[in-house]
Amino acid sequence: MSRQKIAAGNWKMNTTLDEGVELVSKLIAAEKDKSVLAILAVPFTHLLTLDKKIKSKGKLKLAAQNCHYKNSGAFTGEISPSMLANLNIPYVILGHSERRQYNHEDNALLKLKVRAALDAGLKVIFCCGEDLDVRKTSKHILHVKIQLEESLFSLTAKEIKNVIIAYEPIWAIGTGETASPAQAQEMHNSIRRMISRQYNKRVGEAMTILYGGSIKGSNAKDIFAQPDVDGGLIGGASLDADEFVKIINSFQEEE
Ligand code: 13P
Q: Measured between alpha carbons, how far is 75 from 96 in angstroms, rounded to an integer?
């Protein structure tokens, strides 16, 4: 089955709006593989301006980096799924390890957020992944299984079609240390089998699974060549237009 190839950039808390506009201008102008969907997860403050800029630019879409689990209420400083949907922002990242760590988001809360985002009509990029201690004890697959079970597996087969999974081993985020292509493939294949078991083989085969953690122009090709890796969620390297374009252009030709 051929799945959509995706290169998603997670800008995190980086760029002023002016810098963001400049980065997007360079990305629009660059020569890119037209079969790859590029998603930019930008700060909330940039969404409207960048949306106008990329309108009708086909394979370039925007994502928010988080949202609340309620659509409105007394939650000072929060942004709701319906606010994003109302702006026609198609994607939201949920469960990033930085939010799990610094904002104490756990699997139960993420289940509520996923439900709210899907109900509002957003597509979810759901992050999972283990830290170094878990990896060292070889419990990484079990760890990710529990994350998926507790946050995603109450969704129906129809609902989970609007979820993209991003496997991001915490020990590889921003560290310069990438999972090897074999380590990425092992986890991605395990995740695909978990989805097939929970739903059915068709749903498992259709699931887009991205790898994230120190992807650069120089290592993307080997990781993207793995059969169960459908693309990447890229942090640092997505802030450099040339580097991100190199990553977008790192997928193999369709056979
Ligand atoms: P880096 O690519 O900077 O390691 O970040 C990965 C990440 O966290 C993407 O969400």
A: 20
